[in-house]
Amino acid sequence: MASNNYALYGVSEQAVELAKQAEAAIAPVYEKIEEIREYNQLRVLDAFKRHHFSETHFVTSTGYGYDDPGRAKIEEIFADLFGGEAAYVRIQISSGTQAISSMLYGLLRPGDELLSATGRPYDTLASTIGFTKETYDGSLMNYGITYNDVELKSDGSPDIDGLLSKINDKTRVVFIQKSRGYTGRRALTGDDIKLIADSVHGVNKDIIVAVDNCYGEFTEKQEPCALGADICAGSLIKNPGGGISPSGGYVVGKADLVEKVAQRITAPGLGSEVGPTLGFSRSIAQGLFMAPHTVAECLKGAVFASKFFELAGIKTSPMAEESRGDIVQTVIFEDPDKLVNFCRKVQACSPVDSFVSPEPWAMPGYEDEVVMAAGTFVMGATTELSCDGPIKPPYIAYMQGGLVAEQVKLAVMLSL
After folding, report:
1. pLDDT at 322 > cutoff 90
2. 8 A C-beta contact, residue 280 and residue 309
3. What is the tens place of the pLDDT at every residue in 177-227?
4. Neighbours of 59 (CB within 10 A)
5. Residue 135 CB burial class (10 angstroms; 0-12, 13-18, ≥19)
6. Residue 25 and residue 214: Cα distance in Å, rounded?
7. Distance CA 191, CA 198 (A)
8. What is the edge-to-edge ordering of all strands in the sheet holding 386-390?
9. Could you tell me if 91 and 286 are in contact, meaning their C-beta atoms sit under 8 angstroms apart?
10. Within 13 A of 388's CA, how many CA atoms are on the CB side?
């Protein structure tokens, strides 16, 4: 790392020297990230080739969007890459929360029970389930669907005995949140997901194992449905959109389950048959093609931040050498002002709205005030560098994304 490159932006010589130490220490970790990137990039290219993707699939559809060839082809490729029988990939899904909520509504019926294998889900999904301070009309619990959960073990691994002890005749869906959400736990890995899926199906093969895959795509060599999960869902403004897709979400899994979700999003009898592409097939396809490379940049930035802060004596998780199941890096400040100031530094190093100073506010769907830095080309895109955190102890910043690792490095070095 040439010192003058970053000194021009106000980075101190001490921070540059610390960064050199960090990068020397994490060189083997970078090599592992590159190996996964190469594997996934070739896997994605192969899927595009095998499914004969062509320029004709960029043709747009409007209105009902019947028989859209580009949409169908993209969904074939998603299903292939994520290990499912079918996929539902649509620009009309505006967030990961919408995709995951629709998955749960599509699979559960009154009298069923939803059992979370990863403890209480994050705030925005809590409103969908119905256990927030404010009771929302139309939540799952409002429809007579019960909820239970089991906490992960202290090391972040699944509590299989505890999970199996809570399965009963009403259990319809076992839910897995791969990423950490607003918690201090580690993200789950593919091995964890396989263990949960195999254990649950060993007790009852008809129980649906559903995965919130947000932030986790392409961080490893296999996706949840290739590891035994029945269905998974996520957002295209996170990892699989490659920083290119302007909106959208996906659901992948067993064909009958995916269609249940599609009928929830559109209408019974219509399901996946409708949904115009509106000219976005090119962006979705190109974003998917770029995703392994982009995710590798995100991971490099996160690993650098982890080692840099560790050397500076600042608490962070995961550690640089730990296996990663998502692109999120936490920094634990134990001070609300430091949390806010860190988010402001990230915002100042953004290509969009760098002059804006984030302030904590009551964001919709969150129980506490949240401060959020998001100077992104796509609003809310967390494949791009962003950082947020609830204003509550221990005042953790959740940093994720980074289309280019250099941006993450600059923000981290300046923040010191």
Report:
1. yes
2. no
3. 999 887 889 999 999 999 999 999 999 999 999 999 999 999 999 999 999
4. 13
5. exposed
6. 29
7. 11
8. 315-317, 328-332, 396-400, 386-390, 370-373
9. no
10. 22
User: What residue type is assigned to position 302 of the chain?
Assistant: A
CA–CA dist 242, 179 (Å, integer) = 18
Other Cβ atoms within 10 Å of 317 Cβ, number = 19
Bridge pairing between strands 386-390 and 396-400: antiparallel
As given in the structure block, the two tokens for residue 261 are 């979700």
Q: Give the span between the Cα atoms of 89 and 76, in whole angstroms.
A: 10
What is the rounded CA–CA span in Å between residue 5 and residue 249?
A: 38
Which is it for the CA torsion 79, 84, 86, 90, positive or negative?
A: negative
Separation of alpha carbons 171 and 203, rounded Å: 11
Q: Is the dihedral of CA 93, 194, 147, 108 positive or negative?
A: positive
**What order do you get walking across the sheet with 146-149 strand by strand?**
86-90, 249-253, 231-235, 208-212, 171-177, 113-116, 146-149
